[in-house]
Design goal:
alpha/beta, Rossmann fold, 3-stranded antiparallel sheet, 10 strands
């Protein structure tokens, strides 16, 4: 596997815990987006980016500055996988939509890890493109029993491209 880092934005700790779980399974470091630098981006060929969804489908607040760091460092030649945390019951109309903002921000990179919406319960999500989530969508609040299985399947799917 080429140099890889997991970068997350988390307000309540849920997305951080998921990021750390993914990083541990891959044997890589997890970095809070508030600590993101151009050097971290430049020193890694693969970026796994995670955000929670807030408000009316926005990515986690710290990501707005993080996106500027990503763009400033440049994503040409980088492979990017996305994951998002959401609440399919209380916010089923914007479930994991924060991922869509990250997806748009990393345009030009090699984006991997789209996930079928099969087996998910939600009303709408901006993170669905051509019938698939642009990355791994997780609801660790209402569907905690599916989190580990979904992470394992996703890692299995993307690992060959990292």
């Amino acid at each position: 596997m080429k140099p890889t880092v997991v970068i997350y934005g988390s307000s309540t700790g849920t997305c951080q815990a998921i990021a750390e779980k993914i990083a541990k399974k891959l044997g890589v470091e997890a970095v809070d987006v508030t600590d993101l630098t151009a050097d971290i981006v430049n020193n890694n060929d693969n970026l796994i980016l995670g955000t929670s969804t807030w408000g009316s489908g926005d990515m986690q607040d710290d990501w707005y500055e993080g996106v500027e760091v990503l763009k400033g460092a440049g994503l040409s030649g980088k492979t990017v996988a996305l994951f998002g945390c959401g609440d399919c019951e209380s916010y089923g109309d914007t479930f994991c939509s924060g991922m869509s903002e990250l997806y748009q921000a990393v345009e030009g990179a090699n984006i991997i890890g789209a996930v079928s919406t099969d087996g998910y319960t939600f009303d709408d999500s901006d993170a669905v493109v051509d019938g698939k989530f642009v990355g791994l969508a997780l609801d660790d609040l209402n569907e905690e029993d599916k989190t580990d299985e979904r992470i394992d399947a996703w890692i299995n799917d993307i690992k060959g491209s990292l």
